Amino acid sequence: MKFDLKTRDFINIGIFAVIYFLLVYLSGMIGFFGPWFMFVGFTIAIILNGIVIVLFLIRTPKMGAMTLLGFIHALLFVIAGQVWYLLVIVPVLGFIADLIIHIGVENNELKRSRLSIAYALFSLWYNVPLFPVIYNAEAYYDEIRPMMRDDYVNSMQAILTGPFLATWAVTIFILGLIGGWLGILTAKKHFQPAGLAS
């Protein structure tokens, strides 16, 4: 397990971080149709981004790659107006994903059995932008009310409870496993990376 990122790796990290961000952002736009549609959009993003992340790891099978991708993604989200602590939590989840993928592995070998778990854990960040509804709900809804209809905000208040967010976290993890598995199948069908498509 080595931190041996090179110029080409940093380029890949930047490119895939933007692709990952755009898929999340564009899928999230479905949420304008209603609060439940927000979770439909995130479901689509989590599954499709499983392909993006697996292909990213094939091209950049280096320790630290997921950490940096997470930081860039979080930075883009904070610039777009999301909570600042994404800059802490998302890179930490990326680092945990890096450890799962690379710890005890020599020569940056990718083990198929680890990729889905690493991606599923990384995907838990989807719950982070919703944390304010737990500790500062009034300010959160006051902030979004000018941008959304009152019935939309009222529906959000009814949906976004502590038990719902806990259930959503479990759902995110399961969707991440599915997305990672789909990414592995896609890579196996269309690519022949060492140790992954065998």
Would you kindly provide a brief summary of this structure?
With 198 residues, this protein is mainly alpha-helical.
Total count of helical runs of at least 4 residues? 9
Helix content: over 70%
Q: Please report the total strand number as a whole number.
A: 0
Q: What gross morphology would you assign?
A: elongated
What is the N-to-C succession of helices and strands? HHHHHHHHH
What Rg, in angstroms, do the CA atoms define? 17 Å
User: Structural class, from secondary structure content?
Assistant: mainly alpha
How many strands, what sense, and barrel or not for the largest sheet? Answer: none
Mean pLDDT: 87
Strand content: under 5%
What is the first-to-last residue Cα distance? 22 Å
Low-confidence segments: 193-198
Describe this structure in words.
With 198 residues, the protein is an all-alpha fold. The protein has 9 helices and no strands. Helix 2 packs parallel to helix 9 and helix 3 runs antiparallel to helix 4. The chain is elongated, with a radius of gyration of 17 Å. The two termini are 22 Å apart. The C terminus is likely disordered.
List the keywords.
mainly alpha, 9 helices, 198 residues
List the topology elements:
Elements: H1 7-28, H2 35-59, H3 65-79, H4 86-102, H5 112-122, H6 132-135, H7 137-144, H8 150-159, H9 162-190
Helix pairs in contact: 1-2, 1-3, 2-9, 3-4, 4-5, 5-9
